[in-house]
């Protein structure tokens, strides 16, 4: 039972991480040093368009900013925004822990009741 | 221990929470499906939720409001995107305007909940996916306890550029 749980939990985490792996990597590179989409694209075995799409998702989430410089599009990590996202996730974590605790209380209260 | 783990992914804007309950999946499902039970846990005690509509079927919608200490009533909505009783639930959760209807221009967040038999009870996993920080902030500001609201306003200071 316990082993099954651990395996499932790990699988969940790996699944989440893999789904976002490219974006996480793009973000890490853009935070380390601003660079063009074409420079970024060289690191991945995928089309320029695919990398551009990942950058667009990050840009939409305001985790990176994109700026046209001549013929290049320069991508830069938005560190304050990333910090803010982390703080908001902390708040949502507290919110869901509180909700989960209330669910447990409701279920415990039902036990032995005849309703 | 009810909460087994939480995983926060700031670059993917997702929050995953795994919890274990001493009740079978049917009973845990009930706290989501039965609006009277849902009202008892969705909002904090200082901001209880009232569901005026709760259609627990694919494409079904919910409308709710919360009642704050000062009598304010922020409103929200759900839309059920997938349902497999008592195993899986996917729903969108967004902000509503004064009329109780979905507010245009604010994307809903996406919730995925799964219920699995484990250790003689139920392991519930909730995954919440956000679109952007602005949405996270707007949704969180709704129906929050005083302390939480202050915490959120402090979050804004994080956006102040740090001198290099």
- The CATH C-level name of chain B is Alpha Beta
Order of helices and strands of chain B: EEHHEEEEEEHH
- What is the number of strand segments of chain A? 3
Oligomer: heterodimer
Low-confidence stretches of chain A: 1-19
- By CATH, the topology of chain B is Alpha-D-Glucose-1,6-Bisphosphate, Chain A, domain 4
Q: What would CATH call the class of the largest domain in chain A?
A: Mainly Alpha
Descriptive overview:
The complex is a heterodimer of chains A (115) and B (164). Chain A has 115 residues and is an alpha+beta fold. Chain A is 70% helix and 12% strand. Chain A is built from four helices and three strands; from the N terminus they run H-E-H-H-E-E-H. A three-stranded antiparallel β-sheet of chain A has the order 1-3-2. In chain A, helix 1 (2-32) crosses helix 3 (48-60). Chain B is 20% helix and 40% strand. Chain B contains four helices and eight strands, in the order E-E-H-H-E-E-E-E-E-E-H-H. Chain B is of the alpha+beta class and 164 residues long. In chain B, a hairpin with a 2-residue loop joins strand 7 and strand 8 (121-129). Chain B is globular and about 45 Å long. At the A-B interface, helix 1 and helix 4 of A face strand 1, strand 2, helix 1, strand 8 and helix 3 of B.
Give descriptors for this structure.
heterodimer, A: 115 residues, alpha+beta, Arc Repressor Mutant, subunit A, 2 domains, 3-stranded antiparallel beta sheet, 4 helices, 3 strands, disordered N terminus, B: 164 residues, Alpha-D-Glucose-1,6-Bisphosphate, Chain A, domain 4, 8-stranded antiparallel beta sheet, 40% strand, globular
């Amino acid at each position: 039972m316990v082993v099954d749980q651990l395996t499932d939990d790990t699988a969940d985490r790996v699944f989440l991480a893999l789904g976002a792996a490219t974006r996480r990597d793009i973000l890490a590179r853009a935070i380390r040093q601003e660079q063009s989409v074409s420079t970024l694209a060289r690191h991945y075995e995928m089309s320029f368009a695919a990398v551009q799409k990942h950058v667009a998702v990050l840009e939409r989430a305001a985790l990176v900013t994109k700026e046209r410089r001549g013929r290049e599009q320069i991508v830069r990590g938005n560190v304050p925004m990333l910090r803010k996202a982390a703080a908001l996730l902390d708040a949502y974590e507290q919110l869901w822990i509180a909700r989960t605790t209330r669910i447990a209380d409701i279920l415990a209260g039902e036990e032995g009741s005849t309703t | 221990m009810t909460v087994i783990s939480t995983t926060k992914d700031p670059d993917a804007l997702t929050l995953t929470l795994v919890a274990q309950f001493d009740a079978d999946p049917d009973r845990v499902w009930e706290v989501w499906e039965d609006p009277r039970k849902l009202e008892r846990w969705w909002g904090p005690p200082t901001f209880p939720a009232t569901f005026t509509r709760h259609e627990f079927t694919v494409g079904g919608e919910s409308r709710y409001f919360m009642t704050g200490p000062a009598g304010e009533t922020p409103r929200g909505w759900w839309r059920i995107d997938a349902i497999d009783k008592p195993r899986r639930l996917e729903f969108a959760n967004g902000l509503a305007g004064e009329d109780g209807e979905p507010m245009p221009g604010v994307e809903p967040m996406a919730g995925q909940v799964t219920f699995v038999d484990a250790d003689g009870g139920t392991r519930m996993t909730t995954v919440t996916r956000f679109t952007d920080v602005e949405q996270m902030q707007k949704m969180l500001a709704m129906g929050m306890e005083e302390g939480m609201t202050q915490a959120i306003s402090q979050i804004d200071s994080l956006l102040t550029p740090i001198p290099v």
